[in-house]
Amino acid sequence: MLSVRVRILAAILLVAAAGLFASGAAASLVQRERTLDSVDSALTAEVGEARFIATESGSTSLDAVLAAVVQQVRPGTNETTLAIIDGAAALAPGGDVDFRLEDDRAFVDRVTAETSSGQVVRGTLVLPGQTVRYVAAPVTVAGDAARGIFVAAFDVDAELEPVTDALGTYVRVGLAAFVVLGLVGWLVSGRLLRPIRSLREAAARITASDVSERIPVNGHDDVSDLTRTVNGMLDRLEGALVAQRRLLEDVGHELKTPITIVRGHLELMDPADTADVIGTRVLAIDELDRMNVLVRDISVLAEVQRPAGLTRAPVDIAALTEQVRTKASALSGHRWATPEAAHVVASVDAGKLTQALLQLAANAVSHGAVDGTIEIGSAVGRGTGGESRLRLWVRGGGPGIEAEAQEQIFERFRRGSAGRGEAGSGLGLAIVLAIAEAHGGTATVASRPGHGATFTIDLPIPPAEAGHAPTETSP
Question: Which of 81, 127, 299, 363 qualifies as a FRET site for 148, CA 20 to 30 Å off?
Fold first, then answer.
């Protein structure tokens, strides 16, 4: 099976060969036709010149007229002339000429026969090693019974020799260019296809458990862009695989405890003791409820982390903030406030942001002060690079969060200090972070012991949307 590199090179060379052949053949044919037309024009001009000389000579004998013509019409390069009288070669130019025809009896007989009708004849004679283009014009003189013929001829091969030499030079240069093109094409195609070859080799080495292989990127062309895209895809696959592996490990660890508890109590339960049966039943249902919460949160986290896990639409952030505050007020008897709302329309998933803010509100109720105020707000601010950012936050009172705990609080199954509500799965804040990251942002916490905590969802805003924001504040 031919490789792509060989096919590309073969196609390039085939097209190049066809182009070189077509251009060389066309140029050669055009030059050849021009040369032959020039020869025919020269022959026609010499016949006219011969007629003029014959008319002006004033001679009354055919011999004298033809002698005058042969003497005055001097052959040029690759040319000769001849006068035939009564079927025999009679007069030829003196001195050196490139070739002669007076000794070729067959040619003399041919011309005599062709002009027997009294018409000017143009023809081509192929001799061994020579092609002759000639014109033969009958010549007669009043009062002289002899029949004469004036012949002018060109050595066509000699006339075409410059064209032939040019074609030979073209062929040699074309072959050299063809070889150079082949070498350059082989090197360039290899360079361009190297990332694809590396991609194939990397794909062959990648396994379901290891996608750490990356393809080196060199250059800034389309194939290099493809390599970067594939590397980005491998980065996402590796991230998804690591997250999946970590989630499965954590889930296995988290489910092991309730399963062990339920199994242990069932094994130790006395079926004859009604109180023991009832107590074990209550404990098993409680553990199963806890596992149900865990499975539900795992499903939510997996959904958020899917590439198409968000449904974005233009949302009025101020209205969204007020809706979340209204919904959160049903969680507890705290005083709920919205000190600030961002008057901006942003393309977000309203449902997912509401879920994240309510999760933060539930955390504030569970871990914050028993009474007091919980704030839910939003604002538009500037990032470190000057870009517009949308910040949504939930601030509550309470004991706050230790500095070392803040660094790990958004990790999966990382539980804070015991709250006053139902024990969670440890995935709530991980879900909040996943929702923020799915929007291209992040989630952070700011807290000091004894002064409560502020959880913030920080999202980027496209410039077109940021233009609707009149304020520039931060929580």
Answer: 127
CB 42 within 8 A of CB 154: yes
Q: Are 452 and 397 in contact (CB under 8 A)?
A: yes
- Choosing among 2.40.128.50, 3.90.550.10, 3.30.450.20, 3.90.650.10, the CATH entry for 4-162 is 3.30.450.20
Cα of first residue to Cα of last residue in the chain, in angstroms, is 65
Strand order in the sheet with 442-447: 335-337, 373-382, 388-396, 453-460, 442-447
Is 419's pLDDT higher than 80? no
What sections of 206-337 are H helices per DSSP?
A: 222-268, 274-305, 317-328
Domain boundaries, the chain: 4-162, 222-305, 313-466
Q: What is the per-residue pLDDT across 307-330, written as a single tens digit (0 to 9) for each? A: 556 788 999 999 999 999 999 888
Q: What pLDDT digit, counting tens, does each position of 129-146 carry?
A: 889 999 999 998 888 888
Quote the tokens at residue 315. Answer: 């949302």
Q: Do domains 4-162 and 313-466 have the same CATH topology?
A: no
Tokens of 17: 């060969």
Which fold would CATH assign to domain 222-305? Helix Hairpins (1.10.287)
Cβ contacts of 427 within 8 Å, gap of 6 or more: 294, 297, 298, 300, 301, 412, 413
